């Protein structure tokens, strides 16, 4: 896997993935940013959300669960001192579907957190990562 980050100006930069996609990142105005893109640490948190959602959906689909929507809400705290690593991350799944089995949802989230989600396992080396979920019945 490869990536490239090109400085634009100020503290804005363009991240380019090896698969050919780009994303603008920027810093806060108080550090010279213009707020034209997400912060790099926000990208890490978004990466965790995408990684674990991918796993959970794949596991539930293989388990023949009828998922119609999935939202992952993340909340993180960072250390006060440099390096300001994540110290706590909470991952909340809102999964909508028809007749979803709560045990299967819980198992899918646990498998992602403990076995499959590289981002969760990596960030878990410095942060306490917790998970919970709610199930909503689709109309």
UniProtKB/TrEMBL annotation:
Q: Where is the signal peptide?
A: none
Superkingdom in the source lineage: Bacteria
Any Pfam family: OsmC
| Gene3D superfamilies per record | 2.20.25.10, 3.30.300.20
NCBIfam families xref list: PRK10738.1
Concerning PANTHER family, the annotation shows: PROTEIN YHFA
Name of the protein? OsmC family protein
